[in-house]
Amino acid sequence: MKIKEVSQKYNIPADTLRYWERQGAIPPVNRDEAGYRDYDQEDMDWISFAQCMREAGVSIEYLIEYIELFKGGKKTLEARKDLLREQLKVIKRHLDEVQNTYDLINKKVQNYETHVEGYHGKLIK
């Protein structure tokens, strides 16, 4: 699959795909005889992983480190798991923050629905 198709499939700009590859956030993509990128399923799996991680707020540097470890094969399994566990903790903290914000706003909405409609205090002119 060519870069334009991959870009459309994942809704990622082609420039971003090239950047991720140049930086090492995804492994190098195979090239056809003319030198154009020719993405296979494994490449797309890496793109999907990178996209998921980026959407979760994971840095490019983290992805680069993960890829470097992955290149090391089975001997880096524990290190890779440790990196993923570390990211799970970061994402969990973020989820907790979002949940707290959700709960606060939800409480405000409920308060409006039950109490505020008849409010005539200082803030109402």
Q: What can you see in these coordinates?
A:
This protein starts with a helix and ends in an 11-residue tail after the last helix. It has one domain (about 5-120): Multidrug-efflux Transporter Regulator, Chain: A, Domain 2 (Orthogonal Bundle). About 65% of the residues lie in helices and about 0% in strands. It is elongated. The longest helix has about 40 residues, at about 75-115. It has about 120 residues and is an all-alpha fold.
Secondary structure layout plus pairing:
Elements: H1 3-10, H2 14-23, H3 41-55, H4 60-71, H5 77-114
Estimate nothing, just give the exact number of structural domains. 1
How much of the residues is beta strand, in percent? under 5%
State the separation between the terminal residues, measured CA to CA.
Answer: 62 Å
- Tell how many strands the DSSP assignment holds: 0
What is the CATH fold-level name? Multidrug-efflux Transporter Regulator, Chain: A, Domain 2
Mean pLDDT: 92
Helix and strand composition category: mainly alpha
Which range best describes the helical content: under 10%, 10-25%, 25-40%, 40-55%, 55-70% or over 70%? Answer: 55-70%
* Gyration radius over CA: 22 Å
Largest sheet: none
Key terms:
125 residues, mainly alpha, single chain, 5 helices, Multidrug-efflux Transporter Regulator, Chain: A, Domain 2
Write a brief caption for the model:
With 125 residues, the protein is an all-alpha fold.
